[in-house]
Amino acid sequence: MGTFYNSRLLEWMEVGRSELTRAAGIPYVEWEKRGVMAPIVEANLKFRGRAGYDDLLNIETSCEREGRARIKFESVITQGETGQPVAEGFTIHALTNPEGKPLRIPQWVNELLGDMTE
């Protein structure tokens, strides 16, 4: 079809989330070491344009609280050279302990969210 396979969008959004948490000072792998898991409970994807093999893309990701035990990551993906839109969307993540029991957003995550939204 001359464009990326649609499931790649979720992978690109994961890259955006990972880089955002890393840039804010606590990579997601550290969240899990601290006992905070963040499984996706909802995803919304909008396909806006095309991207082909080996295209350079920009991924802009932001994060906000979504209630007491959830966070929302929003992503906008554009062509690196032209800025043309490729896709946008969001994922909502429930915060849980390793056994899957919901957790309120821990204080250190609240502080990190502040760093990611400023």
From TrEMBL:
<protein>
    <submittedName>
        <fullName>Esterase</fullName>
    </submittedName>
</protein>
<comment type="similarity">
    <text>Belongs to the 4-hydroxybenzoyl-CoA thioesterase family.</text>
</comment>
<dbReference type="GO" id="GO:0047617">
    <property type="term" value="F:fatty acyl-CoA hydrolase activity"/>
</dbReference>
<keyword id="KW-0378">Hydrolase</keyword>
<dbReference type="Pfam" id="PF13279">
    <property type="entry name" value="4HBT_2"/>
</dbReference>
<dbReference type="InterPro" id="IPR006684">
    <property type="entry name" value="YbgC/YbaW"/>
</dbReference>
<dbReference type="InterPro" id="IPR029069">
    <property type="entry name" value="HotDog_dom_sf"/>
</dbReference>
<dbReference type="InterPro" id="IPR050563">
    <property type="entry name" value="4-hydroxybenzoyl-CoA_TE"/>
</dbReference>
